Amino acid sequence: MGGFKVLRERWIAHLESTRRRAVVLIDEAQEMRPAVLSELCLLASAHFDSQPLPCVILAGDARLIEKLRREELLPLGSRIRTRLGLEHASRDELTACITHLLGIAGNANLMTPQLRQTLCDHAAGNYRVPTTMAAELLAVAAQRDLAKLDEKLYLEVFSPPDSTAPRRKVAAR
Predict the structure, then answer these.
(1) How far is residue 132 from each of residues 25, 72, 122, 137, measured CA to CA in Å?
(2) Is the pLDDT assigned to residue 105 strictly greater than 70?
(3) Domain locations in the chain as residue ranges
(4) Which member of 1, 49, 50, 133 has the greatest number of CB atoms within 10 A?
(5) Given a cut of 70, is residue 46 above it in pLDDT?
(6) Would you tell me how many other CB atoms lie within 10 Å of the CB of residue 133?
(7) Rounded Cα distance, 105 and 53, in Å
(8) Which stretch of DSSP H or E encloses residue 56?
(9) Helix/strand/coil for 46
(10) pLDDT at position 86
(11) Quick one: DSSP state of residue 71?
(12) What is the pLDDT at residue 152?
């Protein structure tokens, strides 16, 4: 009983003993129930909002912004200090990201420029898509001991299976 009060007391004791503040990162926050989001207000502050407890970071898509406009969530929405809205990344931004990641990984020439463009063309503006696809290509290239990732490899890895191949018949039971 008294769940959030006990948890709040533990946060305060932690802050007093360590002088460090915890960070709670919630991804896909738009999927959370409004009641759970409302509890964050109670959990995240003490003494009438004068003492922040954990730092809460909500990450989500545009539905989160809409959800925070609901009447029961206005108190939470009003406590958000910084909002960073990201739009779909352009092809140039995605290409720059891939180029940067290859450079800091130590092999800026691992991937052909054409492959970089192809990955970015299929990313739908999402940074996660080309990096995930690049990781899959890298895994295959490592298995095959390839020195360079190119569009040929992309087509081999991501093309749909050949539909002209005969299908195996499943035995009836």
Answers:
(1) 22, 37, 12, 9
(2) yes
(3) 3-79, 91-158
(4) 133
(5) no
(6) 20
(7) 37
(8) strand 55-58
(9) strand
(10) 77
(11) G
(12) 96
